[in-house]
Specification:
This is Transporter family-2 protein. By secondary structure, the protein is an all-alpha fold. The protein is built from 5 helices and no strands. The protein has one domain. Helices cover 82% and strands 0% of the residues. Helix 4 crosses helix 5.
Length: 147
């Protein structure tokens, strides 16, 4: 089961690179914020249909939850706007490695401090070395772009 989930996360990551590749040209054609809105509008419709047919509402109400748990909805548009702005300028690969570096760095903090209800996984040498490789990858890719 864990292997299937790992493969699913790789495919989800690949889909983000496809999304970034689509957003850059779309943003140039219709405008950056319109491109962002279209992505979320279509995503909201698909999510609604999936909820309607595959996930009956559970109690308690979504809006009875703490506001900080719903705050993630504010982060998605920031991410998509950054993709839309960055991809045409620095390319999909540099954009994605930058996103990956941010994700891994924040994930290490989430795990180490058990933030947002995550399972505590303290920093260790392997995790920090992995982050170092991602930082190096971003540096090498950005250096190639800037030169």
């Amino acid at each position: 089961m864990q292997l299937i989930l790992i493969l699913a996360t790789v495919l989800a990551g690949a889909s983000l690179a496809v999304e970034a590749g689509l957003l850059g040209p779309l943003g140039q054609q219709v405008g950056k914020l319109w491109a962002t809105f279209s992505i979320f509008g279509i995503g909201a419709c698909v999510s609604f249909l999936l909820m309607l047919f595959f996930a009956p509402r559970q109690r308690p109400s979504l809006f009875a939850q703490p506001a900080w748990q719903l705050g993630g909805g504010l982060l998605g548009p920031v991410y998509v706007v950054v993709l839309t702005l960055a991809t045409p300028v620095i390319g999909v690969a540099v954009t994605m490695i930058g996103v990956l570096m941010g994700q891994i760095a924040q994930s290490l903090l989430n795990d180490h401090y058990a933030l947002f209800g995550s399972k505590q996984q303290p920093f260790n040498r392997q995790r920090l070395i992995a982050l170092g490789f991602i930082v190096a990858a971003l540096g090498l890719m950005a250096w190639g772009e800037l030169s």
